[in-house]
Amino acid sequence: MTESDRTRTIELCDVSPRDGLQSLEVMVPPVTRAELAGRLADCGIPRVEVASFVRDDLVPAMARPEEVVRALPQASAVWAGLVLNERGYERLAETALDKVHCTFGVTETFQERNGGSTVEAGLARTLAVAERARTDGRRVTVTLSCSFGCPYEGEVDPGAVADLVARTAGGAVDEIVLADTIGVATPTRVGRLVGRTVDELVIATGVHLHDTRGTALACVVAALEAGATVVDGSVGGVGGCPFAPGAQGNVATEDVVYLLEREGVETGVDLDALIETARWLGSVLGRPLPGRVQRAGAWP
């Protein structure tokens, strides 16, 4: 990393209460999801995606998000909620959350499976939510799923993704996140697309990377070198996507923190506490988690 990478403010967002748990067959109780969010905030994580306002019958592990929000502790972290459409936003708007995460897929098949619409309709819904959220005083992040590859359609044209990014950034959007939903990205492709977004649109840009094939940390470095300022992670490396066959967990937040700190980037996160949170979550789920640093420990 260059000196500018080390001095630039980088925000970590932990998505484990939402993306990390959404593929589980058994729902983790709302109060436990809220406790997870609180533990992450206590570690110094600045933003946590705490819930998803979607249909309970389609993603049962995310049921009762309103209860999660009500159980959240007072914290300095920004609490965010995910929505896919205006109905989801209406539910979120009835809560105390002040940050909105929207998402749509860049390929027709994934967007139909995940969002029940065409890509054009998904984009239109996202922009409508963003406009309402801005009017209500909420900041908006939009994540473009499958930006580097689709589980149904295979390779994705970077030019087509860049066009969707530009159209999204033209709305009432504060931040763009490029998602490698199934973990097929490589550093060069990530760096090129992030760099193009940052250079051409001058909008805060982040990455959401799944570590299915072990390339996520390398892609984090490439993204930061290209100008990204936001990195999503999931404590312990838990996660997946119920609509993306074969998708594994997000890059482990503690692995990202370890990497950044060893590279001289100040994250403001207590790595030891984060490792303990990952181990606690493993005990809650009753299984070992894939994150490397929570298994090996911090060093030195």
Overview of this structure, please?
With 300 residues, this protein is of the alpha/beta class. The protein has one domain: Alpha-Beta Barrel (TIM Barrel), CATH 3.20.20. Helix content is 43%, strand content 15%. It has 13 helices and eight strands. It has helices at 3-7, 16-20, 30-42, 65-71, 86-93, 108-115, 119-135, 158-169, 187-201, 216-225, 253-262, 271-285, 293-296; strands at residues 11-14, 47-52, 78-83, 99-105, 139-145, 175-180, 204-209, 230-233. It has an eight-stranded parallel barrel, surrounded by nine helices. Helix 10 (216-225) links the parallel strand 7 (204-209) and strand 8 (230-233). Helix 3 (30-42) crosses helix 4 and helix 8 (158-169) packs parallel to helix 9 (187-201).
